[in-house]
Amino acid sequence: MRRDDRNGVALLVLDRPKSRNALSDAMLAALSEALAAIAQDRSVRAVVLAAEGPVFCAGHDLKEMTAHRADPDRGRAYFADLLGRCAGVMQAIVRLPQPVIAAVQGTATAAGCQLVASCDLAIAAADARFCTPGVSIGLFCSTPMVALSRAVASKHAMEMLLTGDLIGAEDALRFGLINRIVAPGAERDEALALAGRIADRSAVAIRFGKAAFYRQRELPLAEAYQYAAEVMTENMLSRDAEEGIGAFVEKRTPRWEDR
């Protein structure tokens, strides 16, 4: 995986196209390391996650997994550790202070679909396809289900999980898995442009908002409103909110201090 920063946007690129950008042990470690570094990097205001080659991400590296069936415990400890590490990466995306935008080409399958669902936003090429195909090989996509079921409506998620069928970009848009569709080859530029617009906003407001979005949706309605009011009060006391409201009243461009 490689990283390229430009104008406040970090571009992370999965670059193992010969292995269909599978989430191998090495790829998961690289993603985890990159996300941890970005979380501490205040110069990064948005992230784009892209991939090289005809496949965005084929999910876990099944050859790597199968090799551990020769372990004394038939791979139980390795499988549990692998799935825990993968879940850690997905949660790191959600917890990241900066928004993460997936730029999807080709196919995103199994944990690759999970990766897209875990991102805050997603731009897909018109010929992109998505699926959770585990049932076709006797392995229900239980961990991809966690992200998928939080990104799309229950019945759409269940249909994808129970059939393992590929869905096209139009259905992915209709289901709510992606935000928009662009011409093949334009997905990365579109994602970078969207990230650039986000990067122009107050980083402190974005940090408040992203964290609050994911926390409040897991709360009962009254608790969600109480929590959101507390967050908005703290946000209101930030320097950027003072500057932004002042700039609006004075009809000028705000000068963000990100505090």
From TrEMBL:
Q: Which residues form a coiled coil?
A: none
Q: Which SUPFAM superfamilies match?
A: ClpP/crotonase
Superkingdom field = Bacteria
Listed Pfam families: ECH_1
Q: Name one GO molecular function term.
A: enoyl-CoA hydratase activity
Record keywords, A-Z: Fatty acid metabolism, Lipid metabolism, Lyase, Transit peptide
Q: What does it do? A: May play a role in fatty acid biosynthesis and insulin sensitivity.
Family classification: Belongs to the enoyl-CoA hydratase/isomerase family.
* Protein name as annotated: Enoyl-CoA hydratase domain-containing protein 3, mitochondrial
Q: Specify the taxonomic lineage.
A: Bacteria, Pseudomonadati, Pseudomonadota, Alphaproteobacteria, Hyphomicrobiales
